Amino acid sequence: MRFDIVTLFPDFFTSPLQSGLLGKALAKAIASVHLTNPRDFTTDKHHRVDDEPYGGGVGMLIKPEPIFAAVESLPVLPRREVILTTPQGETMHQKMFQQFAENCEQLVIICGHYEGVDERVLNLVTREISLGDFVLTCGEIPALTLINGVTRLLPGTVGKEASLKLESFEEGLLDYPQYTRPPEFRGFEVPPVLLSGNHAAIAQWRLEQQIQRTRDRRPDLYAKWQLEMDPSQATETSRD
Q: What is the pTM of this model?
Protein backbone atom coordinates (compact mmCIF):
# COMPACT_ATOMS: atom_id res chain seq x y z
CA MET A 1 0.00 0.00 0.00
CA ARG A 2 1.33 3.40 -0.98
CA PHE A 3 0.20 6.52 0.88
CA ASP A 4 0.86 9.91 -0.71
CA ILE A 5 0.24 12.77 1.70
CA VAL A 6 -0.17 16.26 0.25
CA THR A 7 0.63 18.44 3.25
CA LEU A 8 1.89 21.90 4.09
CA PHE A 9 3.48 20.48 7.25
CA PRO A 10 5.43 17.32 6.41
CA ASP A 11 7.31 17.49 9.73
CA PHE A 12 4.02 16.67 11.48
CA PHE A 13 4.44 13.04 10.41
CA THR A 14 8.09 12.53 11.41
CA SER A 15 7.66 10.97 14.84
CA PRO A 16 4.33 9.13 14.36
CA LEU A 17 5.61 7.34 11.25
CA GLN A 18 8.62 6.05 13.18
CA SER A 19 6.73 4.80 16.23
CA GLY A 20 5.01 1.56 17.27
CA LEU A 21 3.46 -0.94 14.89
CA LEU A 22 3.08 1.72 12.21
CA GLY A 23 6.81 2.43 12.24
CA LYS A 24 7.59 -1.30 12.08
CA ALA A 25 5.17 -1.83 9.19
CA LEU A 26 6.80 0.96 7.20
CA ALA A 27 10.27 -0.39 8.02
CA LYS A 28 9.20 -3.79 6.66
CA ALA A 29 7.77 -2.13 3.52
CA ILE A 30 4.28 -3.42 4.24
CA ALA A 31 3.25 0.13 3.39
CA SER A 32 5.06 3.27 2.31
CA VAL A 33 4.33 6.92 3.02
CA HIS A 34 5.44 9.74 0.70
CA LEU A 35 5.09 13.38 1.68
CA THR A 36 4.54 16.14 -0.89
CA ASN A 37 4.40 19.81 0.03
CA PRO A 38 2.17 21.97 -2.20
CA ARG A 39 4.36 24.95 -1.34
CA ASP A 40 7.07 23.40 -3.50
CA PHE A 41 4.80 23.85 -6.51
CA THR A 42 4.04 27.55 -6.10
CA THR A 43 5.33 29.94 -8.75
CA ASP A 44 5.45 33.28 -6.91
CA LYS A 45 8.50 34.49 -5.00
CA HIS A 46 6.71 34.24 -1.63
CA HIS A 47 5.58 30.64 -2.22
CA ARG A 48 2.05 31.57 -1.24
CA VAL A 49 -0.47 28.72 -1.08
CA ASP A 50 -3.52 30.57 0.28
CA ASP A 51 -5.63 33.59 -0.59
CA GLU A 52 -8.80 35.43 0.45
CA PRO A 53 -12.12 33.90 -0.64
CA TYR A 54 -14.09 35.55 -3.42
CA GLY A 55 -17.21 37.23 -2.05
CA GLY A 56 -15.56 37.99 1.28
CA GLY A 57 -15.59 36.05 4.49
CA VAL A 58 -13.35 35.11 7.38
CA GLY A 59 -10.09 33.23 6.90
CA MET A 60 -8.07 32.04 3.94
CA LEU A 61 -8.49 29.27 1.39
CA ILE A 62 -5.82 27.02 -0.10
CA LYS A 63 -5.43 27.92 -3.77
CA PRO A 64 -6.11 25.26 -6.42
CA GLU A 65 -2.88 25.61 -8.43
CA PRO A 66 -0.38 24.15 -5.92
CA ILE A 67 -2.75 21.32 -4.95
CA PHE A 68 -3.34 20.30 -8.56
CA ALA A 69 0.38 20.48 -9.34
CA ALA A 70 1.29 18.45 -6.26
CA VAL A 71 -1.23 15.70 -6.98
CA GLU A 72 -0.39 15.58 -10.67
CA SER A 73 3.30 15.09 -9.81
CA LEU A 74 2.52 11.78 -8.08
CA PRO A 75 2.66 8.34 -9.69
CA VAL A 76 -0.72 6.78 -10.44
CA LEU A 77 -1.25 3.18 -9.34
CA PRO A 78 -4.15 1.16 -10.79
CA ARG A 79 -6.35 1.05 -7.69
CA ARG A 80 -6.21 4.56 -6.27
CA GLU A 81 -8.37 6.87 -4.17
CA VAL A 82 -7.72 10.62 -3.84
CA ILE A 83 -9.02 11.75 -0.46
CA LEU A 84 -9.60 15.20 0.98
CA THR A 85 -9.69 15.49 4.77
CA THR A 86 -12.53 17.87 5.60
CA PRO A 87 -15.18 18.23 8.33
CA GLN A 88 -17.75 17.97 5.52
CA GLY A 89 -16.67 14.46 4.58
CA GLU A 90 -17.88 10.98 5.51
CA THR A 91 -16.94 10.06 9.07
CA MET A 92 -14.22 7.40 9.31
CA HIS A 93 -15.28 3.93 10.40
CA GLN A 94 -13.78 0.46 10.57
CA LYS A 95 -15.43 -0.86 7.40
CA MET A 96 -13.97 2.10 5.49
CA PHE A 97 -10.49 1.10 6.64
CA GLN A 98 -11.17 -2.50 5.61
CA GLN A 99 -12.34 -1.42 2.16
CA PHE A 100 -9.20 0.64 1.59
CA ALA A 101 -6.92 -2.14 2.88
CA GLU A 102 -8.55 -4.74 0.63
CA ASN A 103 -9.24 -2.73 -2.51
CA CYS A 104 -6.60 -0.01 -2.85
CA GLU A 105 -2.97 0.08 -3.85
CA GLN A 106 -2.60 3.83 -3.35
CA LEU A 107 -4.25 6.43 -1.16
CA VAL A 108 -3.54 10.08 -1.96
CA ILE A 109 -4.56 12.20 1.02
CA ILE A 110 -4.89 15.97 0.65
CA CYS A 111 -4.69 17.64 4.06
CA GLY A 112 -7.04 20.58 4.39
CA HIS A 113 -6.06 23.79 6.20
CA TYR A 114 -7.25 27.27 7.10
CA GLU A 115 -10.91 27.68 6.06
CA GLY A 116 -10.59 24.83 3.57
CA VAL A 117 -9.59 24.50 -0.06
CA ASP A 118 -10.81 26.10 -3.25
CA GLU A 119 -13.89 24.14 -4.37
CA ARG A 120 -12.22 23.29 -7.69
CA VAL A 121 -9.83 20.96 -5.84
CA LEU A 122 -12.77 18.56 -5.52
CA ASN A 123 -12.32 17.77 -9.21
CA LEU A 124 -9.24 15.80 -8.15
CA VAL A 125 -10.94 14.08 -5.23
CA THR A 126 -12.73 10.73 -5.26
CA ARG A 127 -13.73 10.80 -1.59
CA GLU A 128 -14.07 13.36 1.22
CA ILE A 129 -13.38 12.02 4.71
CA SER A 130 -13.75 13.44 8.23
CA LEU A 131 -12.50 12.32 11.63
CA GLY A 132 -15.77 13.38 13.25
CA ASP A 133 -18.31 16.14 13.70
CA PHE A 134 -15.82 18.75 14.89
CA VAL A 135 -13.21 21.09 13.44
CA LEU A 136 -9.45 20.66 13.89
CA THR A 137 -6.58 23.02 13.15
CA CYS A 138 -5.21 20.81 10.39
CA GLY A 139 -6.03 17.88 8.13
CA GLU A 140 -2.84 16.04 9.09
CA ILE A 141 -4.51 14.56 12.20
CA PRO A 142 -7.25 12.69 10.29
CA ALA A 143 -4.70 11.79 7.60
CA LEU A 144 -2.49 10.12 10.21
CA THR A 145 -5.53 8.34 11.63
CA LEU A 146 -6.37 7.00 8.19
CA ILE A 147 -2.81 5.79 7.59
CA ASN A 148 -2.75 4.06 10.97
CA GLY A 149 -6.20 2.49 10.65
CA VAL A 150 -5.56 1.08 7.18
CA THR A 151 -1.96 -0.04 7.69
CA ARG A 152 -2.74 -2.11 10.78
CA LEU A 153 -5.14 -4.18 8.65
CA LEU A 154 -2.51 -5.01 6.04
CA PRO A 155 -1.06 -8.55 6.28
CA GLY A 156 2.08 -8.63 8.39
CA THR A 157 1.46 -5.50 10.46
CA VAL A 158 -0.22 -7.17 13.45
CA GLY A 159 1.54 -10.27 14.77
CA LYS A 160 -1.61 -12.26 15.45
CA GLU A 161 -3.93 -11.42 12.59
CA ALA A 162 -6.72 -13.43 14.22
CA SER A 163 -6.87 -10.76 16.93
CA LEU A 164 -8.11 -8.28 14.31
CA LYS A 165 -11.33 -10.27 14.04
CA LEU A 166 -12.02 -10.00 17.77
CA GLU A 167 -11.89 -6.23 18.14
CA SER A 168 -14.47 -3.53 18.64
CA PHE A 169 -16.54 -2.78 15.52
CA GLU A 170 -15.42 -5.88 13.60
CA GLU A 171 -18.76 -7.64 14.16
CA GLY A 172 -20.77 -4.49 14.82
CA LEU A 173 -20.27 -4.70 18.59
CA LEU A 174 -17.83 -3.18 21.07
CA ASP A 175 -15.12 -5.40 22.50
CA TYR A 176 -15.68 -7.50 25.62
CA PRO A 177 -13.89 -6.78 28.96
CA GLN A 178 -10.45 -8.36 29.23
CA TYR A 179 -8.29 -9.25 32.23
CA THR A 180 -4.81 -10.56 32.95
CA ARG A 181 -2.84 -11.57 36.07
CA PRO A 182 -3.22 -11.22 39.01
CA PRO A 183 -6.65 -12.84 39.51
CA GLU A 184 -7.37 -10.40 42.35
CA PHE A 185 -6.14 -6.80 42.64
CA ARG A 186 -7.16 -4.41 45.41
CA GLY A 187 -10.37 -6.30 45.93
CA PHE A 188 -11.26 -6.38 42.23
CA GLU A 189 -11.54 -9.95 40.99
CA VAL A 190 -11.42 -11.49 37.54
CA PRO A 191 -14.83 -12.95 36.61
CA PRO A 192 -14.77 -16.65 37.61
CA VAL A 193 -15.87 -17.84 34.17
CA LEU A 194 -12.57 -16.65 32.68
CA LEU A 195 -10.68 -18.87 35.11
CA SER A 196 -12.90 -21.91 34.52
CA GLY A 197 -11.19 -23.30 31.43
CA ASN A 198 -14.64 -23.82 29.87
CA HIS A 199 -14.12 -22.30 26.45
CA ALA A 200 -17.76 -22.52 25.41
CA ALA A 201 -18.86 -20.73 28.58
CA ILE A 202 -16.15 -18.10 28.09
CA ALA A 203 -17.25 -17.47 24.50
CA GLN A 204 -20.87 -17.10 25.60
CA TRP A 205 -19.91 -14.73 28.43
CA ARG A 206 -17.85 -12.60 26.07
CA LEU A 207 -20.68 -12.31 23.56
CA GLU A 208 -23.12 -11.34 26.31
CA GLN A 209 -20.67 -8.70 27.55
CA GLN A 210 -20.25 -7.32 24.02
CA ILE A 211 -23.99 -7.00 23.59
CA GLN A 212 -24.49 -5.41 26.99
CA ARG A 213 -21.58 -3.02 26.61
CA THR A 214 -22.69 -1.92 23.16
CA ARG A 215 -26.29 -1.44 24.33
CA ASP A 216 -25.15 0.65 27.32
CA ARG A 217 -22.38 2.70 25.72
CA ARG A 218 -23.35 2.95 22.05
CA PRO A 219 -27.10 2.52 21.58
CA ASP A 220 -26.67 3.69 17.97
CA LEU A 221 -24.34 0.78 17.21
CA TYR A 222 -26.58 -1.60 19.14
CA ALA A 223 -29.62 -0.60 17.08
CA LYS A 224 -27.64 -1.08 13.86
CA TRP A 225 -26.40 -4.48 15.02
CA GLN A 226 -29.94 -5.55 15.86
CA LEU A 227 -31.10 -4.68 12.35
CA GLU A 228 -28.21 -6.62 10.82
CA MET A 229 -29.08 -9.64 12.96
CA ASP A 230 -32.81 -9.38 12.21
CA PRO A 231 -33.59 -7.24 9.12
CA SER A 232 -37.32 -7.78 9.68
CA GLN A 233 -37.11 -5.28 12.54
CA ALA A 234 -36.55 -2.52 10.02
CA THR A 235 -39.81 -3.41 8.28
CA GLU A 236 -41.67 -3.54 11.56
CA THR A 237 -40.23 -0.18 12.59
CA SER A 238 -41.23 1.42 9.30
CA ARG A 239 -44.82 0.31 9.84
CA ASP A 240 -45.05 1.90 13.29
A: 0.85
